[in-house]
Amino acid sequence: MREIGDYGAERFDPDLIAGRPEVRRVGGARPMKKILILDTGREWGGGTNSLLELLKRINRRRFDITVLFYEDVRMGDGPSIGDVVGSLGLPFLLKGRRPVPGWAKAAKEAARIATWWNRPLRSRAVFAVDFRWKIRPDADAIAKILREGRFDLLYMNNQPSTNLEGILAAHAAGIPSIQHSRIETELNAYEVNAVNRLVTRMICVSDGVKETFVSQGVAAEKCTVVYNGIDGQVSPKIPADEIRRKWRIPADQIVIGTVGSLIKRKRVGDFLKILALVSDGGKRRITGVIIGDGPEKRRLLEEAKRQGVDGICRFTGFQGEALSFINAMDVFVLPTEREGFPRVLLEAMLMAKPVVASRVAGPEQLIADGETGFLVPVGKTERFAAEIDRLAVDPGLRGRMGARARTMVVSQYSIERYVEGVERVFQEVLGE
């Protein structure tokens, strides 16, 4: 792992990634193309896992990959992202984050106070401050890395709002860029314009994500849909009964669970309300399991007490082997308010679990309502509870839905199709 500084690229050593021959050929093949992978995220989530699955399988005879992260996040108590990337034999650069200067904090607070009456104006004012102290300088730093590393392409793994510095950097360095958008999100006018003018291609993980961006003004011809995929041969490493014993879940309990970062948009508080309804305040043989960590954890622990489910809900924290935990569940629940194409649903369906999820982009495309699971409007906890109750009392229904879910995932969302789709975009953008 190479650390390049918490702000710019002043200490960036181009020899780390550019010291190999300028033109690399395999036999009589064409020169390999150098691609910088940029991830500005703060957490290890489904998008990170999907990126790592791509890096494991990408054609190294055609693409010369270097990975740049802002943070070297760990998988709970396990390895860090840098460790995993390094184990794949890929160069890993760690950029870090610049501390917010005092003037920027003061300017943002002043902007919020001055524009309290107008939310759009307030957002623009705060964005202007962020652009000056962070986005523009970070773009200059990344552009320097691109130039000195002699990269042919910048690939960004998040969404335009969190990758704006990368978009600007690729333009400044005179190379094409690909934005892999893994979630539906709201863009401001500057970001929409930047995508349309500067991004060469945007990969969207679902039709719903594409529609969200197009509805905001992003040019439809910029967008290509490539669904996330999963390895159909993967299996749980820890037996379900071992998971249940470790977390003191009796064998006769129906387990409903969810997996994800404990952040507001995941609406894990709704999961606790749903658990309270389904369990009838803990009177029924139902246990809830929440796998993940994040800034909302303390509030959620308090909410569990308020809902009276603290005794029947297990908070496991981040688990590197989430698939084994999902396999120990009877019903998977995703009450999120916003998604792209959640990898965790692919994992739940691969484990033949019926899913009850919010009717939002991603889940709406993955789940055949009434066949492989149920779709419920966001925030309708009583509807969630009703559908979960149908599954809890009917093991035959759970089995039929789970089997159909597994068949759908294996046949339609293979990891090979995902990797081929991304590589095809690489080739088109690079003119190969």
Explain what the structure shows:
This protein is an alpha/beta fold and 432 residues long. The protein has helices at 15-18, 46-57, 81-87, 102-114, 119-148, 164-173, 189-198, 207-215, 240-246, 268-278, 297-306, 322-327, 343-350, 363-366, 381-392, 395-412, 415-430, and strands at residues 2-3, 33-39, 63-69, 92-94, 153-158, 177-181, 201-204, 223-225, 254-259, 286-291, 313-317, 331-334, 355-358, 373-376. The protein has two domains: 2-229 and 415-430, Rossmann fold; 240-412, Glycogen Phosphorylase B (Rossmann fold, 3-Layer(aba) Sandwich), CATH 3.40.50.2000. 43% of the residues lie in helices and 15% in strands. The strands form two sheets. It has an eight-stranded parallel beta sheet, with helices on both faces. It has a six-stranded parallel beta sheet with strand order 11-10-9-12-13-14, sandwiched between helices. Helix 5 (119-148) packs across helix 6. The protein is globular and about 60 Å long. The two termini are 31 Å apart. Mean pLDDT is 91; it is low at 5-28.
